[in-house]
Specification:
Strand content of chain A: 15-25%
Oligomer: heterodimer
CATH architecture of chain A: 3-Layer(aba) Sandwich
CATH class of chain A: Alpha Beta
Structural class of chain A: alpha/beta
Helix content of chain A: 25-40%
Number of strands of chain A: 12
Largest sheet of chain A: 8 strands, mixed
Number of strands of chain B: 12
Strand order of the largest sheet of chain A: 6-7-8-3-9-10-12-11
Distance between the termini of chain A: 24 Å
Number of helices of chain A: 10
Radius of gyration of chain A: 21 Å
Order of helices and strands of chain B: EEEHEEHEHHHHHEHEHEEHHEE
Number of helices of chain B: 11
Largest interface: A-B, 47 and 46 residues
Chain lengths: ~325, ~325
């Protein structure tokens, strides 16, 4: 990085791969692999929000789960504050888990319906042996207050709350152990428009107050751009473009990023922009195309794109903007 | 396109009231909704979960869950008949024939254990022909029309063998098979990725132009509304809060709820990390609706008068809002 005195990254991914075995054929003998995450390298700085955008099946959620080690990646390094978490066993991992927490998409399925909200939010303290019952209760009430829920919520059950309130409960639980990094996987996709903005504001306020770093995974580019400092675009298990949020929006370099930006329906009935409609569907990560993974849908593909996979490289004149495309668009 | 005139109205919904009988008593999901759908135009119905937009669609199709859901009032006028009271035998001829339907989740709209071709032929066998070979041929042609490559092969495949976007194309082919006058599409692209959504919206617009269809498009996505609709109704808690031409709704929203919705969505050209404007609180439960204006507990402009229900009144050409204070609201 060429910025002087750039702080060491909080999180550094080096060539992370997550290949799931796919058994098929007679007696499930033939084995291929689903290359959900296929060599991702990126950095997340302290206090920064990195947006991770891509369509269903691009591997963005799998990558998030690798980072919080709900998956053990099949290759690569996950350096958190200098320590490689990728290969640690469960016991060695436990003290690190408090620093990396996750907020899930579905606030119904991610909360145990048989526990009170107080028990749900206190569970991290129990697991990590923090405080006695009275102290835990106090900290739970503090957390509920921080996410905008009344103290009375602690004694009620998840079903008594709306989707937006349940997402607040999930955020309170994730914050319990004062993590440094929150992986937010589609945190507002399941919420109604008027509730989305309430939860996005909460996440922005918490970041300012607590100095949190976010990996913000979502498919809605407008939402991601609003909360992110930098944005990574993922396609078929790889990062195809990474740039500061405003820069990515103002001058996207990768043909996939351009198509994605142009495909978003804008809430402006007088919009006159030209829409790039991509042909075809995303190929399967079990049998990804040779060469550039995007070439079968790319309007600019050349012979070279069909055989040679492009590496991420800095865009001319922009050290902070990287793109994996053979063409200079 | 001809200028819209009264005789262009294909479907007219008047004072529709739909209720559900539940353990908690009778809930009114749609409470006095009226609108017209015109030939060659798209009417968007937008609102959040529970606002009654899907129940409105199910009421028009008479597909309400039975016996809980009932139409208790109003008329649904289509080609000289009132669908609200039509006997089931006659409804069968209209549904899938003169009125097509596109649902949100193409996987559940299709039968997983029947080949695509059989399901598509069935539409023609029900409404158009007695000859199975002819129905199959027409089905293949329909798949070609919605842009499915190699339709002869696809006809023999099962829904799980197709991608989400391809499945939605099949559902569109079924909806359009019998050249309907009206298509009702309930969140047709919500389950799809954004690049596939762009393909499907483009396809629907092209087919609408070619066939002169009237479309009712139900969605929660204001972007989809802005890009595909001519007219819009904004629903809140079972009632119409505002209705009008799409430009008027986006440029000069008159109802505080419409304004709040438009202000609260993050925009690509907006300032990053700025606090978003919010609509405080949440939608009231149908079990516990406030008397008077249903938006009053979230409205920043609430006054005592809001305890009486505001009627929809004209705020501009073809543009109406149900708010006592629309004249006094500050310009946006």
């Amino acid at each position: 990085m060429d910025t002087p005195a750039a702080p060491a990254p909080l999180l550094q991914l080096e060539n992370v791969q997550m290949h799931f075995p796919v058994r098929e054929g007679l007696f499930l003998r033939s084995q291929r692999s689903c290359r959900a995450v296929d060599g991702v390298s990126l950095q997340l700085r302290a206090g920064e929000t990195l947006g991770l955008v891509g369509e269903s099946g691009c591997g963005k959620s799998t990558l998030g789960k690798c980072i919080v080690r709900l998956h053990q990646p099949t290759a690569g390094r996950i350096l958190f504050a200098g320590t490689d978490l990728a290969t640690l066993g469960q016991t060695a991992l436990k003290p690190w888990r408090r620093h990396l927490q996750m907020v899930f998409q579905d606030p119904v399925e991610s909360l145990n319906a048989r526990h009170t909200v107080g028990e749900i939010v206190a569970e991290p303290f129990v697991i990590h042996g923090e405080g006695d019952a009275r102290e835990r209760r106090e900290r739970v009430l503090g957390l509920l207050d921080k996410v905008g829920l009344p103290a009375a919520a602690a004694d009620r059950y998840p079903f008594e709350f709306s989707g937006g309130q349940r997402q607040r409960i999930g955020i309170a639980r994730a914050l319990a152990l004062r993590p440094r990094l929150l992986v937010c996987d589609e945190p507002v996709s399941a919420l109604d428009v008027s509730i989305q903005s309430q939860v996005l504001n909460l996440l922005l306020d918490l970041q300012r107050e607590l100095g949190l770093s976010y990996l913000f995974i979502a498919h809605n580019l407008a939402v991601v751009k609003h909360v992110s400092d930098r944005i990574a675009i993922m396609y078929l298990g790889r990062i195809v473009e990474l740039a500061p949020a405003d820069e990515l929006y103002a001058s996207p370099r990768h043909p996939y990023t351009r198509a994605l930006l142009s495909a978003i329906p804008r809430p402006d009935p007088r919009g006159t922009r030209e829409r790039i409609v991509l042909q075809g569907d995303v190929p399967s990560p079990i049998n990804p195309p040779a060469g550039c993974p995007f070439h079968p849908r790319c309007p600019h593909a050349t012979d070279r794109c069909r055989v040679e996979a492009p590496a991420l490289r800095p865009a001319p004149g922009h050290a902070d903007h990287t793109v994996s495309c053979h063409l200079d668009l | 396109m001809e200028a819209p005139a009264a005789n262009d109205v294909v479907l007219s919904v008047r004072d529709l009231v739909t209720t559900f009988d539940t353990d908690a008593g009778r809930l009114t999901a749609v409470d006095g909704v009226s609108f017209d759908v015109r030939r060659g135009r798209t009417l968007g119905i937008v609102g959040e979960s529970g606002c009654g937009k899907s129940v409105t669609a199910l009421s028009i199709m008479r597909l309400l869950p039975q016996p809980m859901g009932q139409i208790r009032g109003g008329r649904i006028l289509f080609e000289g008949r009132d669908l609200a009271t039509l006997p089931p035998a006659e409804l069968h001829r209209i549904r899938g024939g003169r009125i097509g339907m596109i649902f949100q989740e193409p996987m559940t709209a299709l039968n997983p254990v029947q080949p695509i071709g059989r399901q598509l032929s069935e539409v023609f066998l029900l409404h158009r022909t007695k000859d199975a070979a002819d129905a199959w041929r027409r089905g293949t042609e329909m798949l070609r029309k919605v842009g499915i490559p190699a339709p002869e092969i696809r006809m023999h495949e099962y829904p799980h063998q197709l991608s989400g976007g391809m499945r939605q194309r099949v559902v569109i082919a079924m909806a359009l098979a019998c050249e309907p006058a009206v298509v009702i599409a309930d969140e047709p692209t919500t389950a799809l990725d954004v690049t596939i959504q762009a393909q499907i919206l483009e396809l629907m617009q092209a087919l609408q132009r070619d066939l002169g269809l009237a479309v009712v498009l139900i969605t929660h996505d204001l972007g989809v509304i802005a890009e595909t609709c001519d007219d819009v109704i904004v629903m809140y808690a079972g009632r119409v809060a505002e209705s009008g031409p799409v430009e008027a709704i986006f440029d000069r929203p008159a109802h505080p709820y419409t304004r709040g919705l438009l202000d609260s969505i993050p925009r690509l050209e907006g300032t990053r990390k700025a606090r978003l404007r919010v609509i405080e609180g949440m939608v009231p439960s149908l079990r516990d609706l406030p008397a008077g204006c249903r938006f009053q507990n979230r409205c920043p402009h609430r006054i005592d008068r809001c305890a009486t229900a505001p009627a929809l009144e004209a705020v501009g050409p073809d543009h109406a809002a149900a708010c006592h204070r629309w004249r006094e609201l500050p310009p946006r």
